[in-house]
Amino acid sequence: MFHTQGRAVSRIAAVMLASGLMAGGAAATAVADNAGSTGGVTATVEPTLLSGKIDIDGIGERQGGLFTMTTSDGKTIRTYCIDFGHGIDIKSKAQYRESEWASSPLGAKGREDDAAKILWILENSYPKQTDLKALAAKAGISKPGDFTDEDAAAGTQAAIWNYSDHMKAVPQDPEAKQLRDYLVGEANVGIKTIPTASLSLSPDALTGLSGTKVGPFKLNSSADQVKFALGDDSSGGKVKLTDKDGKAIGASLNGPIAKDTPLYVDVPAGTPAGSVSVTASVTTAVPTGRVFLSEGYTEKEHQQTMILAGSDQTTVPVKVKAAWQPKGALPSATAQVSCADNAVKVTVTNNGDQEGSIEVKPGKTVTVQPGKSETVLVPVAEDAAYDITVTGPNKFVKEFKGVLDCKVTTSSTPPTTPSPSPSGPSLATTGGGSGTGIMAGIAGALVVAGAGAVYALRRRGRHARTSA
Which residue ranges does UniProt annotate as crossing the membrane (predicted)? Predict the structure, then answer.
């Protein structure tokens, strides 16, 4: 089992694909879809932090270190902050979901080297490297006997901030500082490989014509085996799950899983309008370096982005739906935050046999021909909440909501930070002294600036920003 020692708190605005479902001429209306949910681990932040004091150049002393989250099946994952400019509300028990680099600040243009350096740090430091004696030897720490878990966490977080937020962050503890210096030094050659999703099956819904294969649903997974089950089947067992060549897929696929493996629901000709659900599941450790985004839909709910440092084996389920009918325009819509464009990318598809007029609001109206897709890029201001509604034929409606958080925010002026108050929520620096594990949030009532949420007070109006 993954090694756990301090508990942590983290949040991230979830940014995954989503799609609308229309069956039998009636649309299913999704509400508050954080650019959707197509799999990945979900987790809740815990109110503790394994940390130490870190001096931020031009800002002052802050706490930084390793956070803990609990997955929906009760397992543990550990994360570091890659978003110094936003905070964490411990009291809220914020929910997070595994997501792509493209939906985080690491997905912005020109951030490839930063992401590679951070991934190298995660693979070569704590908690991936649990042998502190060996880690101290690699880092050239002069007093390895004084090197603690808290020092390792603080040194690692400081090194990550060097690349995630482009700030000079130096731990006060000498052993933690020596680790930080090693992690940002010549040894760090970067790792260019983008971590694979624990499990992603997207989009969450598609439509098609009877007598065709509804799809493709794109499968990604780092697991050795993906299990499948069909349910809620209105066809009476006539439909089947297949690959791109029409070969039936049984109870599982064994790895390795090729990127964007296409899956289809084969619907026999003459099948009356209906739908079927497809459930996929894996049991796996989440790959190091996966981004975690909070699932808040508003600026107030939005909290700092995290990156995975370690994971227990956890069970990850995802459920999608395929619908069909004999004829007509059959729209679906997906959305994904694109930090490279500082926008939400909305893709509308028509799997029917008639053209359809589909409106993306705000955005534009597009006419989509049968079997074709159109993409609408909806610009969103940094740190701003977005609310995008897609409407089309047969009362089709799909809504995407979230907060766009793509850019590194730095400042030479230290923001004001209220002192912690055990009687009610407040903004506070994350806790932890030299060589000391700190409980972030007294009586669970503090709003911790987890990894530097000191910027939380100055976010533009509480911040103007969102397979697996």
Answer: 437-457
